[in-house]
Design goal:
By secondary structure, the protein is α+β, with helices and mostly antiparallel strands. Helices cover about 45% and strands about 10% of the residues. The chain folds into 2 domains: about 100 residues, Multidrug-efflux Transporter Regulator, Chain: A, Domain 2 (Orthogonal Bundle), CATH 1.10.1660.10; about 80 residues, Arc Repressor Mutant, subunit A, CATH 1.10.10. Strand 3 and strand 4 form a beta hairpin. Helix 3 crosses helix 6, helix 6 crosses helix 7 and helix 8 packs across helix 10. It is elongated, with a radius of gyration of 19 Å.
Length: about 220
């Protein structure tokens, strides 16, 4: 059964979308202009606004690009499924990443029958996938656990839930956003308040600082 996603909770700027998806806000804007993702909250000036599931799709795009799937291939695969899956096709459509027997190159593939996956860019391709593809669950799981920065930095105490604190990255099991913790912890006095008054752990504070530093590094990516 195709899952149903609702536009609820979490409104993300291009910069925050990029931080969660592992790219700069500028790159996110380029992906939107090229039709790889769509800002379903607001599109236009001064900036697009993205929903939680838009961000999940941005995570998918970043992952695909890291696998050397081209912008053109992603766009062409999406064009082939948008009529049937108009909302968040990278989450809804039976797409994945696999390798065809003709070569060992990772590519977008589409499930056309049980156990049968063909090249999503060219459904007439006769070669079938050697390994059953996996994609969407991994991307959504990555976002729920703090996005790209958390995955790369191996952070374990950060989560992103669309209905918690406006969908902002936050500490697991606490109503503290990562940004708020980091702002307080940037000086010794604030760090001590977090430890002694609010009972946060050193690890929670350090991960918040690490996440924010990773997000700042991504913002500098052109």
């Amino acid at each position: 059964m195709t899952p149903v996603y609702k536009l609820e909770g979490g409104v993300y700027s291009p910069g925050m979308t990029g931080a969660l998806a592992g790219a700069s806000g500028q790159s996110v804007g380029q992906w939107a202009r090229y039709g790889l993702i769509r800002p379903t909250v607001f599109q236009g000036r001064p900036a697009n606004l993205y929903s939680y599931y838009d961000v999940a799709e941005a995570v998918v795009v970043r992952w695909l690009l890291d696998l050397s799937v081209t912008h053109h291939a992603i766009r062409k695969a999406l064009d082939g499924v948008r009529d049937e899956y108009p909302e968040w096709p990278l989450l809804h459509a039976p797409l994945g990443v696999g390798r065809l027997s003709v070569d060992d190159q990772a590519r977008l593939v589409r499930k056309v029958a049980e156990g049968t996956y063909l090249d999503a860019v060219d459904l007439s391709h006769p070669e079938q996938v050697l390994i059953k593809p996996a994609l969407l669950d991994q991307a959504r799981d990555m976002l729920a656990h703090g996005g790209w920065v958390s995955a790369v930095k191996r952070l374990e105490r950060i989560e992103v839930q669309p209905l918690k604190l406006g969908g902002a990255p936050s500490l697991v099991g606490r109503r503290w956003t990562v940004e708020h913790v980091a702002r307080l912890a940037w000086d010794d006095e604030g760090r001590e308040v977090l430890l002694s008054t609010y009972g946060l752990s050193e690890a929670e504070i350090d991960e918040s600082l690490t996440w924010m530093e990773g997000a700042r590094e991504l913002a500098l990516v052109s």
